[in-house]
Amino acid sequence: MTNTEKFNDFNYITDGPILKAILKLALPIMASQLLQTLYNLVDTLWVGKVGAEAVAAISISFPLVFLMIAIGVGLTIAGTAIIAQYKGANNYDQIHRVLGQLFLFVEVISIVIGIIGFLLAEKMIVLMGAEPAIINEAAGYLKIIFAGMPFMFGFFIFSSTLRGIGDTVTPAIMMVVSVILNIILDPLLIFGVGFFPELGVQGAAVATIFSRTVVTIYALVLLVRGIKGLKLKLKYMVPDLEIIKMIIKVGIPSSVEQSMVALGQLFMTNLVASFGTMTLAAYGIVNRVINLPIILAFGISAASTTMVGQNIGADKEERAEKTSFISISTAFIGLTLIGLILVISPEMIISIFNKEPEVLKFGTEFLRIVGLTVGFTGVMYVGNGVFKGAGRTIPPMIISSLTLWVFRLILAYILIYTFKWQQFGLWWAVAISNIVGALIGVTWLKVTDWSDKIVDDRMIEPELVSDNE
């Protein structure tokens, strides 16, 4: 089967029922994201058994790791958008050129980040304000993560480019394999079971990198052999400044967006922590509860990125715009219904996690207020996904930054310290920011002409590529 025939398996994206296509693309993404969420809980559980210092070592390392991941995810989102538009235009040669340039550029970036991070890991931890007792543990954990950065970025490349052509199942399966392998290796390497060495916190890092390395190497084999339609060719890995500029133009705003969100959440957590352990516990529990329905928004958002990109590339702007409406409506209705369920019995839900009277009180208040706005969060997520599919990543960067930094953080400070709302100020700031972020996103989509393709028509000269090339 030629690459062209393999690509034709995804023609339902530009033809046929839109909602069915959205769900077909979104469900594998949601399943893998749900499993990733489960793994995060399991990972915390195992590390927690080592001791409080082990948890602290990973906790203080996480913002740095997340920042690095944000760069990789942001840059590879460019791959999804650009490849989706070339797929819609049936320009298979350009798809392979973009794949080659994305692999070259992002992997070079990952190697540079990995070397710098490995050499400066201890200094970074000290600058983060770590206590002396956890510096060695945290630095050791970070060094392993940074050493494995090329493999982590490699998986991001594979996932984003396959999503660009419409294959969300293969990345989901590989994420499942990675997570299961990680879950198995965690206790073996952390505690030294059998012939495995006891590595403590560093064992968690080794498990993470090893599991990502296994799937990344397999993914590389698939790309080199062209088994999934995408073929990584050496001749397309010679630097092409025009394509690299396009990757940077589309990818950097997404990286900035992810980084701003990470920093904003860090500041928000510090603000919540100022009200004491019980408020912080309530905040953490409600966020975990809310993150489950948000998986639905994440899946639909990623699906809309692929669908919008391909339809714009196929000169089907009207279908792209219809896709945005159906995606946003589906997310809003689905998440609002889930939010209503959460609001009906919030105390019972919070009590599953903690029965402390103050935690129950604050958690119930928070869930009751924010539960009604979960649908708006879905609107913002999916609206951002639509913009990304169109290759316009500056609007999501601005929308996410405004939502988190102005309408959540600054508003929280005003409600708490000017209006003396205390914890209610926190809860209402989150709810209001959800609504405002959604309204900004929808308005921006309505008033701008976002459905023009970003790929240069002059570059579109289809050259059908067979597996034997």
Task: Walk me through the structure.
It contains 16 helices and no strands. α11 (317-344) packs antiparallel against α14. It is 81% helix and 0% strand. Residues 459-469 have low confidence and may be disordered. The chain has 469 residues and is mainly alpha-helical. The protein has two domains: 16-239, no CATH class; 268-452, no CATH class. The longest helix has 37 residues, at 52-88. The chain has helices at 3-7, 18-50, 52-88, 92-127, 132-147, 149-165, 169-191, 201-225, 241-273, 277-313, 317-344, 346-353, 357-371, 374-389, 394-418, 423-447.
Please give the count of helices: 16
Roughly what fraction of the amino acids lie in strands? under 5%
Q: Give me the count of strands.
A: 0
First-to-last CA distance? 13 Å
| Proportion of helical residues | over 70%
- Principal-axis shape: globular
Mean pLDDT: 89
Instruction: Please describe the biggest sheet, giving its number of strands, its sense, and whether it closes into a barrel.
Output: none
Overall number of structural domains? 2
Order of helices and strands: HHHHHHHHHHHHHHHH
Assembly type: single chain
Spans of at least 5 consecutive residues with low confidence: 459-469
- Rg is 22 Å
Structural class: mainly alpha
Concise overview:
It is built from 16 helices and no strands. It has 469 residues and is an all-alpha fold.
Short key terms for the protein model shown above:
single chain, 469 residues, mainly alpha, 2 domains, globular, disordered C terminus
